[in-house]
Amino acid sequence: WKFDVQGNCLEQACEPALGRRRDVARQPWYPIEERYGLVFVYMGPPEHKPPLPRYDIFENLEDGESLISEMPIPGQNVTGMVVDFNWLQSFENAMDPVHAMWLHYTHSGPQFEGTGTIGFPPSYYDPYTVSDKIQYNITTDHGLMYYQRWQRDEPDGTTVDMDWAIEVHLPSIIALPDFVEVVPDRRHDCLIWIVPSDDTSHRAFAVVRAQSPDRLMRIIMGIKQNGKLPWELTEEEHQRFPADFEAQGSQGPITQHSEETLVTSDKGVVALRRMLRKMVDDVEAGRDPLNVEQGEARPRQVKAGVFTVTAEQTDVEPTAAAVPAAGS
């Protein structure tokens, strides 16, 4: 049988007149839109369908730039990386800054490519001095962010304060700066969508604004465990040199929050969960949750990035508000 994109049956092969009762046959369907190299599906109530969001970092491309959402490998279409545990275990990792100090450096050895050269200095990963360098729970128009202050040594021997800032747009988008090639005061260029498949699995989709696929490849290949890529590791190496997926997956298919012992460095995770719970409460009460807007979609500002701290800024004042606007 032949159906149109809204699930209506148009023809029934082998039936008289192509099916005299074909109008009673209907397939489930959802409206879709294409944007930024991805296909977005709306699965909510039709009467509440909002416009598909836009983001300032992906607008007004300059000469030579494009939006890249798939690896430059023949046959590797955009289907999202499949991960076999609950989506929240990946998403809330974005608001857990201290895991970089411990998991990606102290426990498992240096894992970020570029550490000590084009990336962060080793001092960035000191787990014993980081607690007073992070500002958690910075609420933005579209979600939550944190920033971490660190120091970069200049060629002339001086030291400059920097802020590293990650932002999440609820319910499931991570704005992740380049952790391999750390360039200050450059417009942010990447969003990652964490998309639930079911209760115990999800997929991750990334879009980068760049002149080549190198930026996307740094997200995928920029973390080495014992000097190797994940698929090159033995089972023992996965245990001895864990990274994100090992840590998140070890929590089980769905983390039991009742069994957790939360501490001060979990402030970002707790704030994120509270915002998500508020969104669930809003939907149950018939209200539009955060980031559901009506009318024409206006580009949303993304505030993530790496920023130089000026002399006028205080210890608790994030620099993310100074992010360059799209096209500047």
> How far is the first residue's CA from the last residue's CA?
52 Å
- Uncertain stretches of 5 or more adjacent residues: 321-328
Residues in β-strands, percent = 15-25%
Number of domains: 1
Fraction of helical residues = 10-25%
| Rg, alpha carbons | 22 Å
Give a short account of the largest sheet. Answer: 9 strands, antiparallel
Question: What is the N-to-C succession of helices and strands?
Answer: EEEEEEHHEEEEEEHHHHE
Give the beta-strand count.
Answer: 13
Rounded mean pLDDT is: 92
Number of H- or I-type helical stretches:
6
Shape: globular
**Class inferred from helices and paired strands:** alpha+beta
Based on the model shown, name its key terms.
alpha+beta; nine-stranded antiparallel sheet; two-stranded antiparallel ribbon; 6 helices; 13 strands; 22% strand; disordered C terminus
Report what the structure shows.
Residues about 320-328 have low confidence and may be disordered. The protein is globular and about 85 Å long. It has about 325 residues and is α+β, with helices and mostly antiparallel strands. The termini are far apart. It has 6 helices and 13 strands. It has one domain. The strands form 3 sheets. Strands 5, 6, 7, 8, 9, 10, 11, 12 and 13 form a 9-stranded antiparallel β-sheet that branches. Strands 1-2 form a two-stranded antiparallel ribbon.
